[in-house]
Design brief:
The chain is of the alpha/beta class. 35% of the residues lie in helices and 24% in strands. A nine-stranded mixed beta sheet has the order 3-2-4-5-1-6-7-8-9. The N and C termini lie far apart (78 Å). 28% of the residues are buried.
Length: 248
């Protein structure tokens, strides 16, 4: 992809469980804070903040390495800080208010919401397509780049049930692939990304304490089974001797 995710895009990271969607989204926020001095807000609805920070430190991303340029909030923090608002507003509205307040007070360039699937469940949309459209438009109005993680079912080729994929400016698809009886690989590809050129091919995703790397997929060479040959016919395998003709 040329130059990374275009600023201001709303991007969906879609994949089945175990594909490291959260880790990839956190990596984007962390590296933008560390290398570019950008500010990022990571809102996790899937797990407590302490668990997320601990797991990401295990991948070499220590929160203290980026000072205050990466803020991490979870459901517990939102419940405490927005208790009054939760009485009369949906979770979608509360997250919008919290994100807007933080944008005005300290500012940030990148917003991560992990995950959109959980937000849909918490909010209980009555008109999901219309409400999601309004939510996406609100995100674009924040004037930040937004990453939304989204849980899919293994083998599913759709990235949303209410038009989440059509509304997004970009889709990053992550999946698990069985290479052989003993090996499972993580794969990643860009399905679409507006305002930039990119490959749509799958790449292998390699994760370590040194960060995330992608490599070209090398298909394993399968051992071909040898077909069982029929019983040989000696008259077809050997040349006919001259004397056979002379005896006639």
């Amino acid at each position: 992809m040329e130059g990374g995710i275009p600023a201001g895009n709303v991007v969906l990271i879609a994949g089945e469980s175990g594909t490291m969607k959260s880790a990839l989204a956190y990596h984007m926020a962390f590296e933008n804070a560390r290398r570019e001095n950008h500010r990022a807000l990571y809102v996790t609805l899937n797990q407590p903040r302490s668990n997320l920070v601990r797991d990401m430190e295990g991948l070499g991303m220590r929160l203290d390495a980026v000072d205050d340029r990466l803020a991490v909030a979870d459901l517990g923090l939102l419940r405490m800080s927005m208790r009054k608002e939760l009485r009369t507003n949906s979770w979608t509205d509360v997250i919008k208010m919290y994100s807007q307040n933080l944008k005005l007070s300290v500012g940030y360039d990148l917003l991560i919401l992990d995950s959109l699937s959980v937000l849909e469940t918490l909010s209980g949309f009555r008109n999901p397509r219309e409400e999601l459209f309004q939510f996406y438009e609100w995100l674009r109005g924040l004037d930040v780049t937004t990453i939304l993680s989204y849980e899919t079912i293994a083998g599913d080729i759709e990235f949303g049930i209410f038009g989440e994929d059509y509304l997004a400016d970009g889709i990053i698809h992550m999946m698990m692939v069985k290479v052989n009886e003993d090996t499972i690989q993580r794969r990643i590809r860009i399905v679409k990304m507006r305002s930039t050129n990119h490959s749509t091919n799958f790449f292998s995703l390699i994760v370590s304490r040194d960060g995330f790397r992608v490599a070209r997929v090398i298909a394993p060479v399968e051992k071909l089974s040898q077909p069982q040959s029929a019983k040989p016919d000696p008259t077809k395998l050997l040349p006919r001797p001259d004397w056979v003709e002379h005896e006639r």
